[in-house]
Amino acid sequence: MSQAYDHTSLSSDDEELLPSIVVRTPAETRASNMRMIANLGESLNCVSVNCKAASREFGALKDALKATFACKTCGQPPSVPFVLQCGHIHCLDCLEKYLESTMRHFVTTHYCYRPPPAEYVQALREPFVDPHLYLDAVHWIQDNPTPRYQCVHCHELLTRSPVHGFYLRGVMGTLGQEMQASSSGSRSWSDNFFDRYLLF
User: Origin, by domain of life (predicted)?
Assistant: First the structure.
């Protein structure tokens, strides 16, 4: 059983050797504990407020990213996204519908239209294989009327084939947004998919 020492019997020199001990009454201890609990509560409230603010900011950022990466035609997350030269994103379904309708309208209003020869199409895709044939194809395009396409969002004229934005599927998945179910999602496409619309 430990012995309780009477500090009153110690000399001043001996007291200096003892560690500094703050002796509190039970009431003081309770008051101190209550202050600690109150301070902890304030800290938790600050953390909660900061977390809510951060959650709101993150939610706003997610909404902004979803709007940025959505198809500019239908407004839905693209299952097969393509990026136009202007930087806007369109899903393959919407893009194909627009190109097809534009081509159909052009053909019906230009009775003299005739598609370019297959060798010209190949030369336009691979200009360095046969530069002379490429120049002949360019002259053919210049001398014959062809459809003109533009981005349905910003109306910039399209002069190049859209680029498949395969990386966007991962981004949309990370954001937790389901990709829309479309026929293009299960359909394969090739690099020369847009050749028939004279986009190379």
Answer: Eukaryota
Q: Please give the share of the chain, as a percent, with pLDDT higher than 70.
A: 68
Residue pair 119/104 in contact by the 8 Å Cβ criterion: no
Assigned domain for 193 exists:
no
Name the domain count of the chain.
1
Burial string for 26-50 (b: 16+ CB within 10 Å, else e) reads: eeeeeeeeeeeeeeeeeeeeeeeee
Q: Which domain holds residue 31?
A: 9-69
Number of residues written out for the chain: 200
Residue 77, in any domain of the structure: no
On the question of pLDDT at 185 being above 50, the answer is no
pLDDT, tens digit (0-9, with 9 covering 90-100), for 108-126: 888 888 888 889 888 888 8
